[in-house]
Amino acid sequence: MRTCRATAAGKLTVVLATLALVVAGCGGGPSPRAWASSVCSALAPWRSEISRLTSSTDQQMTAQTTPAQAKENLVRLFAGAENASETARRQVEEAGVPEAEHGEEISAGFQSALGQMRDAYGRAADTIEGLSTGEPTVFYDGVRAAVETLNKEYDASTLDTSRLSSEELRQAFDEVPECR
């Protein structure tokens, strides 16, 4: 489970760092600084919630609870991560399209990545909800498999900005207080 926490925090850092490489231009939307501020304002509480939920999941996996208690707690935790991801996705959508070349693609990419993360957490919650708690070893093996799948889906959901670059957005993400 520590991989999940490192993955969640690390992925967000990579997403923020690579987003700062997006191509600037003019598209009539918010300025790069305003957009970076809005995006970071949306992602900061999401990152905190995912970190908190991941820590709680780690604790749950090592706690001395019954499989039924673990199931209830894990489903609640993953549903919380699903909701937090949707809230962040919606806030990025509300931030608009940055005044940058390919701004629509960039905004859509962020929304898509957060939507994929939301869906991955939802599938993990559904998978765990469907596990039988009658046999503890089988239950915890199922939980481990669900978390492994979640981690793979999470990895696949990261935003690919490898072909996009912008000093202006990089500077905006470096300078706005919300991104620090």
Task: Describe what you observe in this structure.
It is a single chain. With 180 residues, the chain is mainly alpha-helical. Helices cover 74% and strands 0% of the residues. The chain is built from 6 helices and no strands. The chain is elongated, with a radius of gyration of 18 Å.
Write a compact overview of the structure shown.
This protein is an all-alpha fold. The protein has helices spanning 2-19, 32-62, 67-94, 103-129, 136-156, 167-175.
Structure characteristics:
180 residues, mainly alpha, 6 helices, 74% helix, elongated, disordered N terminus
Question: What does the secondary structure layout of this molecule look like, with pairings?
Answer:
Layout: H1 2-19, H2 32-62, H3 67-94, H4 103-129, H5 136-156, H6 167-175
Helix pairs in contact: 1-2, 1-5, 2-3, 2-6, 3-4, 4-5
